[in-house]
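Hi X.,

You mentioned you wanted examples for the new student's onboarding notes, showing what a folding record looks like when two proteins sit in one file. Here is a clean example. The first protein comes first, with its sequence line followed by its structure tokens.
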Amino acid sequence: MAKKTVATLQGSSKKLTKAIKMVKSPKTGAYTFVESVMAPELVADFLKKK
């Protein structure tokens, strides 16, 4: 019988945020989506960068 390891992993997990922004390509003019998983404090800096 398999043991449940989910309970032990939940106790040590950090709170993360997934941020998604649209970036316009300089060559084609098409928009692409850039996504990243980070700490909530870093989201504002990620969205300000070009």
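Then the second protein repeats the pattern, sequence line and then tokens:
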Amino acid sequence: MTTSLARFEIAGLSVRDLARTYGTPTYIYDSKTMGTQIESLRPFDVVRYAQKANSSLAVVDFMRHKGALVDAVSAGEIRRAIAAGYQSGGDPPAIVYTADIFDSEALELVLANDIHVNCGSPDMIDQYGDRVSEGCITLRINPGFGHGHSQKTNTGGEQSKHGIWFQDLGDSLERAARKNLRVTGIHVHIGSGTDYQHLAEVCGAVESFALQAGPQVISISAGGGLPVAYKQGDSEINIEEYYNLWNATRNRLTEAFAHPVSLEIEPGRYLVAEAGYLVAEIRAIKRMGSNLYYLIDAGFNNLARPILYGAYHPMSVASFDGRSLSEVASVVVGGPLCESGDIFTQEEGGFVRSELLPTASVGDYVVIECAGAYGFVMGSNYNSRGYAAEVLIQDGRSHLIRMRQATEDLFKEEKIPETKEETL
């Protein structure tokens, strides 16, 4: 996370040159930062990338080359993982399908490619078991409590749809046995945070669930939810303490089962958030009463986190002509969409706030930082605007990894039906 209000480089390359080369808005990813984050998790037996955070092929491929396995939550993500070079099968499985349902495409793809399944609903056990003669599955359990920076990101408790309710574990184990399926893994993911007392409760729950499942369990997953410090004062994760809690749990299970138990972690945001920057151009500056607005050419169709749950992103400004930026102003940063909620500086509930940024001119660039997770992947074509371009910086060079969506591509798959009705 940066503390500077003016930014001239991203991963050693000029913001101005990047913007001129690739246009705006554009996502820029720094591979070095992603690599550093992966390395910090090496104590875990398996680092499994939750690609829902950023599923661009080049990013998924980078994770593969760094030794991370991958988690997929849809048929499309399975196909992306395969396209990025992951092979089906393996021990541990290179690709795991984690979901609360099978749609028809996902089930057929799982079966055709021998993809390991992490079941989040009892019905998934039956639906998978009906199609195979035998097999191994993992169960994702909702322990009855959760944690997160927003209610919308809390993935545990009765208000969350995710996972098999903990009181239904016994029934799910019986379902699996009837279908000749071995439950070889227990997975719990309840949201983000750095509350280690709360984490100890999660570890205890996983241990209890694994003991209930029995010695057929050969792996446990800590899930994801590792927090990212988006602003000054946010808690930083202590990976050593985090690992030690989970490792102690794993060791007790290893002793109880008299065989090794693998410890997985499933980060998404933690690996990519701080590596990503959304570069946008200031197209208008205007005052509305007491508020000074910088209006940029990126909107919530490019980055939805602020409008979804008031997420904070640090920001900086780069000049288009190389001039220094020393004076600052309190500004509201908004986008081009025909929506009052198209504001990047807002609290949860839609309350507009201001951000201290350098005094800028039309043509300068706003850099929205810590934007590598849940940015592009949540994009849309709202207001008939195309998707941003994506660029990966690796070994001091920039690579275009996704072309900007052309306007004519917005409706190339649409069709006006033929009709004999007269036009008025």
